[in-house]
Write a structure and sequence with these properties.
Length: 187
């Protein structure tokens, strides 16, 4: 039975959504095509009807993951973003969190097309932070951009370092609390 174009597109979106979640949970090398497809409810044989390679899917999931986080933070101000991002909830739910915190180290070992998508996503988050800084702080655009880069780097780093500790570690929480306190902008 032939699948309609609409159904094929819906199937592709389902695979992308599930792959985004599974890659964040297991890393790019921690899960294969068969398990990705099974997780999405399909057989592995249909993979190449939707994607030219695993790298192609990885690249698409990076873009999807960035869109997810941008959608979640769209209406937040910078302090709300920091409280959401540099949190135990974000730390403990790698599969539902930001792809930057879950996969940046993996991305460094991927093809350039994946790195381009990561760079684009990083730039979009820097722009989000810079836009908030422009509304509320004085200083040159260059200074605000530098500050935004620092805020994003510390936010991502806080989650990464906290995840490197044992789940019930005092240090894991201490890292998040210290970085969050350092990052919050005084009103």
């Amino acid at each position: 039975m032939k699948v309609s174009k609409i159904q094929a597109q819906q199937n592709r979106e389902k695979i992308i959504q599930k792959a985004t979640q599974l890659f964040r949970a297991h890393g790019y090398d921690g899960i294969g095509i068969a398990d990705l497809m099974s997780g999405a409810g399909f057989t592995h044989g249909g993979f190449y009807k939707h994607f030219s390679s695993k790298t192609d899917l990885i690249s698409i999931t990076v873009k999807n993951g960035v869109q997810e986080i941008l959608h979640r933070i769209h209406d937040l101000d910078l302090n709300q973003f920091i409280r959401l991002y540099v949190s135990r909830t974000h730390r403990d739910h790698r599969d539902l969190g930001c792809s930057l915190t879950a996969l940046s180290c993996d991305a460094a070992r991927q093809a350039d097309e994946v790195k381009v998508e990561f760079e684009t996503g990083i730039e979009k988050l820097i722009e989000f932070i810079t836009d908030d800084l422009r509304k509320n702080q004085k200083g040159s655009i260059g200074d605000q951009r530098k500050k935004a880069i620092g805020i994003l780097a510390e936010s991502v780093g806080a989650i990464v370092l906290s995840r490197a500790c044992l789940d019930d570690s005092k240090l894991a929480d201490e890292i998040l609390e210290a970085c969050r306190a350092n990052l919050l902008i005084e009103d």
